[in-house]
Amino acid sequence: MSRTTAAVIAATLLTAVAAFQVALALGAPWGDAVLGGRAATADGVLTGGYRVAAGLQSLVLLSMAAVLLARGGVRWAAWGATRIAGTLTWVIAGFMILNTVGNLTSDHWFERWVLGVVTVLVALVAIRLARQPGDRSAA
């Protein structure tokens, strides 16, 4: 599989999770399936601060997707071969590994088996993209 294809798959997964977070922010009753089921909910709907956090998380996830696409060589993102993009990709890999631990220890099936699998896959792609040679100096 090419690095571009891997990046597109990871970005697609991140975009799907971002859409899930947007749905949570807008009041979807799936709040028990996130944050280990410890978030405050009312009939499954996240309460105020958690809804704001879900909205912000969607922006972070979309930013991660953009970095991985750049690192994967998508044409519009020439900065993907820079040291900064390489460093950001390592940060994403580390974040996804930590997130995987949290997801896999959750009691909720969705967080464990769906989000856990997504974070494993994104972490593996991020590690692959971060390890590629040829970073140019600065952005």
Tell me about the largest β-sheet: 2 strands, antiparallel
Q: Could you say which overall geometry the principal axes of the C-alpha atoms support?
A: elongated
Spans where pLDDT lies below 50 across 5 or more residues: none
Along the chain, the helix and strand elements come as HEEHHH
Q: Could you give the distance between the termini?
A: 27 Å
Helix content: 55-70%
Q: Compute the gyration radius: what is it?
A: 16 Å
Total domains, how many?
A: 1
Strand content: under 5%
Please give the order of strands in the largest beta sheet.
1-2
Number of helices: 4
**DSSP strand count:** 2
Oligomer description? single chain
User: Average pLDDT, to the nearest integer?
Assistant: 91
Alpha-beta classification: mainly alpha
Q: What are the key terms here?
A:
139 residues, 4 helices, two-stranded antiparallel sheet, 2 strands, mainly alpha, single chain
